[in-house]
Amino acid sequence: MPLMKPKPISPKLHALIDYGLVGSLLTVPSLLGFSDSVKKLYTAEALALFVYIALTDQPVAVKPLIPFPVHGKIDPFNIGQFALQTFLKPFQADRKARLFNVGFTALASLTVLMTDWHGPTKTNP
């Protein structure tokens, strides 16, 4: 049986992308002048995601409590939530916010699909 080549995004790179996505949720809405309701929603989501990422067992974790493969099972639900919020009134009323949300969802989805969920972590190098 041939060995399967691991996916190109390591746990460390996945976490760095996640932290970058959190940063984008905290900065892009203000830079692009999104409504206060969109900015508040993204701020709450960013804070929740930051905690979840920081507590996942990956090489740049703050405290590795959540196994990395479990993070991989939760991510699709987060992505689904981002996809669905595209249809909320504040996003429908603001084309820039809607496009950002679709792009964010696509990037997060691609990251999940390309991640090696069994790569080295902080507790399992």
Q: What this model shows, in words?
A:
By secondary structure, the protein is mainly α. It contains five helices and no strands. The longest helix has 21 residues, at 11-31.
Task: Give a brief rundown of this model.
The chain is 65% helix and 0% strand.
Topology:
Elements: H1 11-31, H2 36-54, H3 68-85, H4 89-92, H5 95-113
Helix pairs in contact: 1-2, 1-5, 3-5
Count the beta strands. 0
* N-end to C-end Cα span: 25 Å
Mean pLDDT: 96
**3D shape:** elongated
Biggest sheet statistics: none
Helix content: 55-70%
Kindly give the count of domains. Answer: 1
The percent range for strand residues is: under 5%
Number of helices: 5
Radius of gyration: 16 Å
Q: Uncertain regions: pLDDT < 50 for 5+ in a row?
A: none
State the order of secondary-structure elements, H for helix, E for strand: HHHHH
Q: Which secondary-structure class do the elements indicate?
A: mainly alpha
Oligomer: single chain
Transmembrane segments: 99-119
Keywords: Membrane, Transmembrane, Transmembrane helix
